[in-house]
UniProtKB/TrEMBL annotation:
<feature type="binding site">
    <location>
        <position position="7"/>
    </location>
    <ligand>
        <name>Mg(2+)</name>
    </ligand>
</feature>
<dbReference type="GO" id="GO:0004519">
    <property type="term" value="F:endonuclease activity"/>
</dbReference>
<dbReference type="GO" id="GO:0003677">
    <property type="term" value="F:DNA binding"/>
</dbReference>
<feature type="site" description="Interaction with DNA substrate">
    <location>
        <position position="248"/>
    </location>
</feature>
<feature type="site" description="Important for catalytic activity">
    <location>
        <position position="218"/>
    </location>
</feature>
<feature type="binding site">
    <location>
        <position position="248"/>
    </location>
    <ligand>
        <name>Mg(2+)</name>
    </ligand>
</feature>
<dbReference type="InterPro" id="IPR004808">
    <property type="entry name" value="AP_endonuc_1"/>
</dbReference>
<feature type="binding site">
    <location>
        <position position="247"/>
    </location>
    <ligand>
        <name>Mg(2+)</name>
    </ligand>
</feature>
<feature type="binding site">
    <location>
        <position position="147"/>
    </location>
    <ligand>
        <name>Mg(2+)</name>
    </ligand>
</feature>
<dbReference type="GO" id="GO:0046872">
    <property type="term" value="F:metal ion binding"/>
</dbReference>
<feature type="binding site">
    <location>
        <position position="149"/>
    </location>
    <ligand>
        <name>Mg(2+)</name>
    </ligand>
</feature>
<keyword id="KW-0460">Magnesium</keyword>
<dbReference type="InterPro" id="IPR020847">
    <property type="entry name" value="AP_endonuclease_F1_BS"/>
</dbReference>
<feature type="active site" description="Proton acceptor">
    <location>
        <position position="248"/>
    </location>
</feature>
<feature type="domain" description="Endonuclease/exonuclease/phosphatase">
    <location>
        <begin position="4"/>
        <end position="248"/>
    </location>
</feature>
<comment type="similarity">
    <text>Belongs to the DNA repair enzymes AP/ExoA family.</text>
</comment>
<dbReference type="GO" id="GO:0006281">
    <property type="term" value="P:DNA repair"/>
</dbReference>
Amino acid sequence: MKIATYNINGVNGRLPVLLKWLEEAKPDVVCLQELKAPQDKFPERALLDVGYNSIWHGQKMWNGVAILARDLPLQEVRNSLPGDESDLHSRYIEAIVGRMLVCCLYLPNGNPAPGPKFDYKMAWFKRLKKHAKYLLSEEVPVVLAGDYNVIPTEKDVYKPERWVDNALFFPEPRKAYKELVGQGWIDSIRHLHPDETIYTFWDYLRNAYGRDAGLRLDHLLLSPQIAPRLVAAGVDKHVRGWEKSSDHAPTWIVLADEEEI
């Protein structure tokens, strides 16, 4: 089974890119972030036409998350992160997909920092850690995937000294990410590729993609009940080079079937 996460950066404006990638990569499950589309403008029909059922939580202009599934049952569990009923941002959606729980998240960017946006980022991260700990306590197969807007280590960024004043690389979110993984989650990319330079995002400015001046922001964390099935992980970097593509590239894992482990 192939599971991917992809910050699409506008699902309708980049629909041709998304459909092209789905046809090429044929993932079984996809977590999308930054839809930038209200609930009634999500391209459900276009995705059905290429074989994907979907659930989504949209928001006008900003945010928005979705989960797509091909030939698998898809049942929504929740469309917001617990812990703050006043938070109306569309940043989290969770579903039972087949025999596992898939959680799609779009963690706040936090810039400019310090300031209210960074405070919101850290408050959201605190809620995420609490919910993630609860999910682990359920002892079920869980994939916690999305755009975390966190550069975990210096290995995950081109020229880290240039990012010390950016909320993506501040000590606080990096510590929070480390604490999250420390609960018992497996960072799939780093688990299989501990020493490789791997990026998932390249800015549109300064020819960042051409220079491979990237960041690793998109992560797929696995619970202990599903981690033994992990057999491959990677990034479809070439998609970032397509015309009118997102500034992120699809990041994916492959899980062996349960009877194969």
